[in-house]
Design goal:
The structure holds two protein chains of two kinds. By secondary structure, chain A is mainly α. In chain A, about 65% of the residues lie in helices and about 0% in strands. Helices cover about 55% and strands about 10% of the residues of chain B. Chain B is built from five helices and two strands; from the N terminus they run H-H-H-H-H-E-E. The N and C termini of chain B lie far apart (about 110 Å). Classes of the chains: A mainly alpha, B mainly alpha. At the A-B interface, helix 3, helix 4, helix 7, helix 8 and helix 10 of A face helix 1, helix 3 and helix 4 of B.
Chain lengths: ~220, ~170
């Protein structure tokens, strides 16, 4: 059973320990080369390496297990079909991440057009003054402190009210720990756009969750 | 030139260079709430990291299996041999058809007169059998072929009665 890859922000194991456990694992570029020659077993190995991270990332975007499964499948199939055009200018994971983000954001946009989601921060953006404090300080009694499930539900609800692009940047930055350049590569936009989106996504999340993190 | 939003984000994430930081802190002197906003952004990040757990993928092997199935289904099968050109090309089929039509025509004209002669022979043969099987010598049977009406005629003389189960149908 192949080992799942670790999240980007997870502590890494000492090099010698990793080497003793996985002495013969080919690196991504070897597997990509084999995939470009039509080796589906090599692609199977890449899927095994990244399916956990990809699925978790998509799930945090869509908050639905079946949708996350389907989108991850769709993303991997797109990756297989276009792997011949991968030139190694970025890491395979960044390239894969970009495909997955495109698939996920496209899906969210389609749902947005169909009116299936509740987010609409295009309106809220115009109301946020970059220089202003986000929200009044919430006042809560100790007994109102929330349990973990409730907090998670509040976070999910807040994330679901963000636009697909804002969801992407805040999750990639805060959860996956990606650098601005990696986010920009994944979303095919400039670093300035990433930073600007991150600013407004944080503002909006703060306005929805301030009472949560201030009373923990 | 970075916008305020870009510089603020870089400030929160500690991505400003020393020169940029110094310049931005001077800019923030007119924004006394900025430090609290930075703390709030950091608190938000901590909240998200603490509560958004990595969602495990259920049935990971089936996940791979489905992907590989779809990949294999979308690829042309290597086990199917390439179609070879058939012996029956269109000109050959046309020539063969014409040849068979010619043979059929020749056989028809060659076989039909013989068949008619055989009919005549058969008529005589049937007459002999019918006469031989009759107990009454006054009953005679004759068969012949009428060319005009194109029918075979069985002519019975001296037969007064024929049982119903012997009637010709």
């Amino acid at each position: 059973m192949p080992l799942e890859s670790e999240p980007l922000n997870a502590p890494t194991a000492p090099a010698e320990r990793t080497a003793s456990i996985e002495p013969t694992l080919p690196d991504d570029s070897d597997l990509v080369n084999r995939c470009q020659g039509g080796d589906t077993a090599a692609f199977d190995e890449l899927v095994t390496r990244y399916r956990g991270k990809v699925y978790a990332m998509i799930y945090n975007m869509v908050h639905n297990e079946q949708d996350a499964w389907d989108l991850a499948q769709d993303g991997f199939l797109k990756a297989w079909k276009s792997i011949g055009r991968f030139r190694g200018q970025s890491s395979f994971y960044t390239w894969l991440y970009r495909i997955m983000m495109n698939v996920t954001i496209d899906s969210l946009r389609r749902k947005q057009v169909g009116g299936e989601t509740e987010f609409d921060d295009s309106i809220a953006l115009s109301r946020i003054d970059p220089n202003s404090a986000t929200t009044p300080r919430a006042v809560a009694l100790p007994e109102e402190k929330m349990a973990g499930d409730e907090i998670r539900a509040r976070i999910d609800a807040a994330v679901s009210r963000l636009s697909p692009e804002h969801r992407a940047v805040i999750l990639m930055r805060e959860i996956d720990g990606l650098e601005y350049q990696e986010i920009a590569d994944s979303l095919d936009c400039s670093i300035g756009t990433v930073m600007s989106r991150l600013f407004y996504a944080r503002k909006k999340m703060q306005s929805m969750l301030r009472d949560v993190y201030e009373n923990l | 030139m970075k916008t305020f939003e870009e510089k603020f984000t870089a400030w929160v994430d500690g991505r400003l260079t020393a020169a940029e930081l110094a310049a931005f802190e001077r800019e923030l002197e007119s924004h006394p709430e900025a430090l609290a906003e930075k703390e709030a952004a950091l608190d938000l990040g901590n909240l998200l990291r603490a509560n958004i757990a990595t969602r495990p993928l259920s049935n990971p092997d089936f996940f791979n299996h489905q992907i590989l199935n779809q990949i294999h289904a979308s690829q042309p099968s290597a086990s199917v041999p390439a179609a070879r050109p058939s012996f029956w090309s269109l000109p050959r089929m046309a020539y063969s058809g014409a040849f068979l039509l010619l043979i059929s025509t020749l056989l028809y004209f060659a076989a039909v007169p013989n068949t008619r002669r055989e009919v005549r022979h058969n008529q005589q043969y049937v007459t002999n059998i019918l006469n031989a099987r009759s107990d009454d010598p006054s009953i005679t049977a004759t068969s012949f072929h009428s060319k005009e009406q194109n029918v075979n005629v069985l002519w019975l003389d001296g037969l007064d009665y024929m049982p119903p189960d012997h009637k010709l149908k």
